[in-house]
Amino acid sequence: MYPGLVHAHSGLRWIALVLLIAAVFTAIGKWQGRSGYTDGNRKLYLFTLISVHTQLILGFVLFFISPKVNFSLLSDKLYRFYSVEHTTGMLIAIILITIGYSRSKRATDAVTKQRLVSIFYGLGLLLILVSIPWPFRIIGANWF
């Protein structure tokens, strides 16, 4: 069960990243171009939100069953990364994305909606990129 969850979490990361990058660039483009807020924009931002929340659920399950999460071994950088750094960074990123979606949903004009998504999704994307266990950063991490 554990290897399947790890592969699902790692594989779905690419979908979440592609959606998040598309959402950020779409929002920035529409914000700077003063374009309207379409139903397609709303769906892209919603699907991005759903994908990162799906990752959050898988991550929580892995947090409780993973042998890489061990608070008694925090002096080891691998255990510290998975136990603290990865978890904290991803939680903050998902909270930012959720706040951005909620605030943009309540905003009245299109430019404000796009600006809020640009800022909050962009900050979330940066935190996610920093918190991912890339193979060149963490020993034992894979691309998939």
- As residue ranges, the low-confidence spans are none
Rg calc: 16 Å
Q: Quaternary arrangement of the chains shown? A: single chain
Q: How confident is the prediction overall: mean pLDDT?
A: 92
Q: How many β-strand stretches?
A: 0
Largest sheet report: none
The shape, in one word, is elongated
Question: What distance lies between the first and last C-alpha atoms, to the nearest angstrom?
Answer: 16 Å
Q: What string, H for helix and E for strand, traces the elements in order?
A: HHHH
Class by helix and strand content? Answer: mainly alpha
Number of domains: 1
Q: What level of helicity do the residues show?
A: over 70%
Helical segment count: 4
**In percent terms, what proportion of residues is strand?**
under 5%
SSE inventory with pairings:
Blueprint: H1 2-33, H2 39-65, H3 77-106, H4 110-131
Q: What is the compact description of this entry?
A:
The chain is mainly α. It has helices spanning 2-33, 39-65, 77-106, 110-131.
Describe the structure.
The protein is mainly α. It has one domain. 77% of the residues lie in helices and 0% in strands. Helix 1 (2-33) runs antiparallel to helix 2, helix 1 runs antiparallel to helix 4 (110-131) and helix 2 (39-65) packs antiparallel against helix 3. The chain is elongated, with a radius of gyration of 16 Å. The two termini are 16 Å apart.
